[in-house]
Specification:
serine biosynthesis, four-stranded antiparallel beta sheet, hydrolase, single chain, Rossmann fold, HAD-like_SerB, ACT_dom, L-phosphoserine phosphatase activity, elongated, eight-stranded mixed beta sheet, Alpha-Beta Plaits, alpha/beta, 3 domains, about 25% strand
Length: about 425
Amino acid sequence: MSDANEPTLSITVTGPDRPGVTGGLLSAVAEVGAEVLDIQQVVVHDHLTLTLLLAPHRPGVTTDGQDLVERLRDVAAVAAHRLGLTLTVTEGTGDNARPHHGRAAVVVLGAPLQARAVSLVTQQIAEHGANIDRIRRLSRYPVTTVEFAVSGAEVDVLRTELALVATAEGIDIAVAPGGLARLGRRLVVLDVDSTLIQQEVIEMLAAHCGREAEVAEVTARAMAGELDFEQSLRARVATLAGLPASVLEEVRRDIALTPGARTLVRTLRRLGFTVGLVSGGFIEIVGGLAAELGIHHARANRLEIVDGVLTGRVLGEVVDRAGKARALREFADLEGLPLSRTVAIGDGANDLDMLATAGLGVAFNAKPLVREQAHTSVNVPYLDSVLFLLGISREEIEEADAMDGAPTSAPEVRLTRQR
């Protein structure tokens, strides 16, 4: 192990990447003898950058450290020339790596992602007093996504500071704890209408009795936070009185999933994550979606049906704003997960408590009020973009799809409603 006064050598080579480059350089320095203190390598568009931090010594052999430094410098130069690489060598003492406290993951999404926006993000991180340790691209389509591994950050403060950049530049930025907090199993809970699916189910039902426009207006005001959700729901459901229950099956067939919804759920399940749906809509629709997608938990309102006809009433307590947050907590308890390991995704004002309760609350193509209050937002129409916020790359998603052509087995779905 290197001590603070021992000479060290930082060797960086850059150039075209090809098999054998890393092994060739390491083989060369191994002939002289050295302890590897750090090694970093990145390849961008077939261009390699490889850095070695070495403490030059041979176990059990007493040799002047500076002499070994010079010999390492010489063999590295010969190896780099042979490999067609550009060499940079810096001498120092000890392993002067910065302590990696205050770890955070900063994920930036843009379609397109302009250089100016990335520049402002990096400037703000520096002004915060944090350091960018690593940068990697998570996706280049359908959006460009870049992840910064940052140290020395206060997550909540940096999140607020970067939210201003996101708004000004028209990009999405998520800031989350890094390190171990980035790893392990999670619970991901989604809203349904205008989040998992593209429509509002109650409007689809109202279309069957010619009152879609009336209901749509009330829905828009409720989602924007202008009306009490429970009162608005009961008023909207009342317009459905007299409809045959058979219209529910017709609506089920007409539902269109949001682009990327299947990929999101499939990938989360492959990772061993738990997925749940919490909706202010109706379990008669939500339950079928959960079963189709292999989702573990589902909670929504239940319509009263008598003699095969909708009465215009809901049974039990309404799944409102507070009810969604309670469902999130209950699902987490059932899975034995702390709230810090939960992610909530929604678009309306009735999702706000759920988004605030979760470890990460994501406003998906949401109303302005929701975007302002959520931890982060996604404003592209692809639900699987949420995977990038969790540090999962497009390449990893596609690799998993290629390795597993068959769908994963569906779990038992817990269909619950407010008591």
